[in-house]
Amino acid sequence: MTPSADAPAGLPLTGERTVPGIPEENYWFRRHEAVYAALAPRCAGATVLEAGCGEGYGADLLARVARRVVALDYDVATAAHVVRRYPEVAVARANLVALPLATRSVDAVVSLQVIEHLWDQPGFLRECLRVLRPGGTLVVSTPNRITFSPGLDTPLNPFHTRELDPRELAGLVREAGFDAVEVRGLHHGPRLRELDVRHGSLVQAQVAVALGGGEWPAELRADVEGVTTGDFTLTADDLDASLDLVAFAVRP
Question: What is the CATH number of the domain that holds 101?
Answer without folding.
Answer: 3.40.50.150
